[in-house]
Specification:
Elements: H1 3-29, H2 34-54, E1 67-75, H3 81-91, E2 95-104, E3 107-116, H4 122-131, E4 135-141, H5 150-163, H6 168-176, E5 179-183, E6 193-196, E7 199-203, E8 209-213, H7 221-239
Helix pairs in contact: 1-2, 3-4, 5-6, 5-7, 6-7
Length: 249
């Protein structure tokens, strides 16, 4: 309802209420019991207002909220395939909160944070993704912290590295939502790199390597590049190799 129309309706309601009260007072005033009737109506109105205000509301069901899921699926790198996947999520009643598209040798990897209706089964989400042509599907519960854009998350973690709030293994763990273990002495059979889809090996600036694992949710080359960027920041901090700006005298 437009604002002008709503104001006109409210004004009309005020005039109607005033006319009704005036009529009631005029009619009741001519009767011997008129004042008593008005007092009873006033008391009933006050009591009704308090009852409505303080009545227990425990019988009302709590509001139902959807569940957040992190859905990752590989799809063909063809026009329209992402729209088909998004349509499948929409048909299930899922709302896509964020989307990260990463290149892959098998196509593209779409990582979506979706808000699903209550009681939506994980298997139903997987079937919907598979029906849209999704492959290598992984689904994991998520929370609101996952809403942060990956690029912003990387910058925040880099700042925390520089300020000393986080050590490198903790920063990599937060970036990739993975388990990170540092080995002080490097195993010659383990060379740092993107060696396994569920395991990354990263050089630690001081010594040894970091073994990064995340079962059931394979890493992508993009994630490996982001983790390497964090290790580069830590290496620069360790070597103190910062170019100080020229100071003008």
């Amino acid at each position: 309802m437009p604002g002008a129309t709503r104001k006109a309706v409210e004004l009309a309601a005020i005039f109607l209420a005033a006319g009704a009260v005036h009529t009631l007072v005029s009619v009741a005033g001519e009767q011997a019991y008129g004042p008593l009737v008005l007092i009873v109506i006033g008391l009933a109105t006050v009591v009704g207002a308090f009852v409505f205000r303080w009545r227990p509301r425990r019988h009302l069901p709590p509001p139902r909220q959807g569940n957040l899921w992190l859905v990752r699926a590989t799809i063909d790198d063809r026009p329209g395939r992402l729209a088909v996947l998004a349509g499948a999520m929409g048909a299930l009643g899922c709302d896509i909160q964020s989307l990260d598209v990463q290149p892959s040798p098998a196509g593209v990897v779409d990582e979506m944070l979706v808000a699903a209706p209550p009681n939506t089964a994980e298997s139903a989400i997987e079937r919907a993704a598979r029906s849209a042509g999704g492959r290598e599907i992984s689904i994991a519960p998520a929370d609101v912290h996952e809403l942060t854009d990956p690029s912003c998350r990387s910058l925040v973690l880099a700042r925390q590295l520089v300020s000393g709030q986080l050590e490198l293994p903790a920063a990599v763990s937060a970036l990739l939502s993975a388990d990170v273990r540092w080995q002080a002495e490097a195993n010659p059979l383990r060379r740092p790199g993107f060696t396994h889809r569920e395991r990354l090996l990263l050089n630690h600036p001081r010594s040894g390597i970091m073994v990064v694992r995340r079962p059931h949710r394979p890493f992508t080359a993009t994630e490996y590049a982001r983790a390497r960027s964090l290790t580069d920041v830590a290496a620069a901090l360790h070597s103190k190799d910062f170019a100080e700006p020229d100071r003008q005298k």
